[in-house]
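hey m, so remember when u said the tokens were messed up on ur end? i reran from scratch. heres the input so u can diff it against urs
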Amino acid sequence: MTTIALIGAGGKMGFRLAGKLKDSHFDVRYVEISDAGRARLADAYGLACTDGPAAVIGADVVILAVPDTAIRAVSTRLEPSMRAGTMVVVLDAAAPFAGHLPARSDLTYFVTHPCHPPIFNDETEMAAKRDFFGGVAARQHIVSALMQGPEEAYALGEEIAQIIWAPVMRSHRITVEQMALLEPGLSETVCASLLVVMREAMDEVVARGVPREAARDFLLGHMNVLGAVIFGEVDGVFSDACNKAIEFGKPVLMRDDWRRVFEPDEIAASIRRIT
């Protein structure tokens, strides 16, 4: 039986993973240093915790469910207890991309991250419709990368990813470098920033006299239909007026060189700030 050591099992992300792994066919050891986290695991799942280095000894897989800023320190502390061939699973590309994992060629590094439930979906149950993060009731896609290690290790990593992010639809295999382009590049630097601007724009029209509820309903409804056209969910086109607004609006809102956020040095700088 494959043995997994889940590090940070009582934290925000680790607690989610613990709930998925406790019913899996894996032999799971749960590691949590905080009293509050240990209590959460005991109260919710009836799980007892193990000391970190002890849990790692003999483990086939070590999942680091800890913040990006803690990956270097935690992996460095646990690395001496890892035998050759151990798979280290990281839940975000930032720390691996930044070189924060131990420099050991005999370890396998597997990175996986959820895409989260898509805006355009066919969920009908309320629990799934309100599961915006994913991993509870709503189906989602995932991305994974085998950063280093034997090719045959990918199957085990993906199997674990399918369990911890379940329910899963598509599972995409990409590289760590591509994952860094997706996050922080695409999803945070671009998408999150533009969504913040959209919220600020809504607040601006409210400050200029539009009732807040009307402004919110109008914006979210137009995000739905405009997004469906832009991303090809429907076979539609914009009106001439909308195209003209985009033609004149985009240069006002966006710098001409905005795509530089995807240049390698910009991605690296963003990840340094995160980690």
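this time it looks ok to me. The chain has two domains: 3-174, 181-274. if urs says something different then somethings off w ur setup not the seq
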